[in-house]
Write a structure and sequence with these properties.
mainly alpha
């Protein structure tokens, strides 16, 4: 028998009470002036530049894939999400308040990019294809609106001449992010135990074990399905938990952050993932959170709005469109700044016209737009 909404709400409130004493140790020490906004923007453009060569197929852009790594950037995003979403959950007055904030932040722009692709990209197909309102069209629209991107990542006749036909590959990570949001209340219920660190370690180890199993199955069978399954929620949970752990034990982390930071940098520099994979998410989390909240403040990068999310979800279809129309091939480095400008303008429009109006007045993104000094760092 499923628990009622009232019971779930009661469990959530009990968890909130149990976390109150710990909150004094973690939240109070987190600097209001931090570098999360700048860090998210850098990570979003890292993903963008990493995709440029592979998506466009332009030889001049291929080397960008050696200097920018989308996989590492996504891992960093999950770490940042863990730190900030743990904080958001703990500061929420109710389960509804928490879910409402998450829905307002992530879904309006997500719906927009999916719907725009569904209605405007069929214009690129030959008239005889009759793509609009076809079975494949409905499958694409519904699958992507419900975060099931893997069911229909492309449309017939769209981008078929491009190196890649998928319309918006980065959207798979949004599905994982949503699963993080939904699993966090359960994680906090498990953390009611006095030995929170032990629960975190067990969840972390279970996630590592899941990834190791599917990587082994991939190498044994050669089937790509195992790699795709490895990238789903259980496998990516290590990064989210590592970021969340940095938040829960931030006071302890802050006392030793310099030693931890430089040790983690050394570990990552010598390709720690291939040397000892279980420590990679933790080392990455220490590095990312150190850059965000321990190193000197770099200024209010969110004063004109947060465009990192728009850059992340709109860059891929924009690159696909430019490739489809042959705009990047003749003079790639002349087209490059125009493409970046188009991505920036699209992201700015997305924030100010779509994302911003749905945010609550107390949202971090609205507060930093009004302030040049200190502001809360909660999402």
């Amino acid at each position: 028998m499923f628990p009622s909404a009232l019971n779930l709400q009661s469990l959530f409130l009990n968890c909130q009470v149990l976390q109150t004493s710990h909150r004094k140790d973690s939240v109070a020490d987190i600097p209001h002036n931090n570098n999360f906004d700048l860090l998210r923007l850098i990570l979003a453009f890292n993903v963008c530049l990493a995709h440029l060569g592979a998506v466009s197929g332009v030889r001049a852009f291929i080397p960008l894939g050696y200097y920018f790594h989308s996989g590492v950037a996504v891992d960093c995003f999950f770490v940042v999400s863990g730190f900030l979403i743990f904080r958001s959950y703990e500061r929420s007055s109710s389960l509804f308040s928490y879910l409402n904030k998450r829905l307002r932040r992530i879904y309006p722009a997500y719906v927009t990019v999916v719907v725009l692709a569904a209605f405007f990209l069929p214009l690129l197909a030959p008239p005889e294809a009759e793509l609009l309102f076809s079975r494949e069209w409905f499958r694409y629209l519904l699958a992507n609106l419900f975060f099931l991107n893997f069911l229909q990542p492309d449309l017939p006749e769209i981008f078929s001449a491009n190196p890649l036909q998928v319309i918006n590959a980065p959207l798979w990570t949004i599905k994982v992010e949503v699963m993080f949001y939904l699993s966090l209340p359960l994680i906090f219920l498990l953390l009611r135990n006095r030995k929170k660190w032990l629960i975190l370690c067990l969840l972390y180890a279970a996630s590592i074990g899941y990834s190791a199993l599917f990587v082994h199955l991939y190498h044994s069978s050669g089937l790509d399905i195992y790699l795709r399954l490895e990238k789903q929620l259980p496998g990516q949970l290590t990064f989210f938990l590592a970021g969340g752990g940095m938040y829960l034990y931030f006071s302890l982390f802050k006392k030793h952050w310099r030693k931890l930071f430089f040790s983690s940098l050394l570990f990552l520099t010598v390709k720690g993932y291939s040397f000892f994979p279980p420590l990679y998410p933790l080392a990455l989390a220490i590095t990312v959170i150190s850059l965000a909240v321990c190193l000197p403040y770099t200024g209010n990068w969110g004063r004109y709005g947060d465009i990192s999310y728009g850059v992340y979800i709109f860059h891929f279809p924009l690159i696909q469109l430019c490739t489809s129309f042959g705009l990047l091939q003749p003079h790639p480095w002349l087209a490059f700044p125009l493409l970046i400008l188009a991505i920036l303008l699209t992201a700015a429009c997305s924030y100010h016209l779509i994302e911003g109006p749905f945010l609550q007045k107390t949202s971090h993104y609205r507060l930093v737009a009004k302030e040049d000094a200190s502001c809360p760092c909660s999402p």
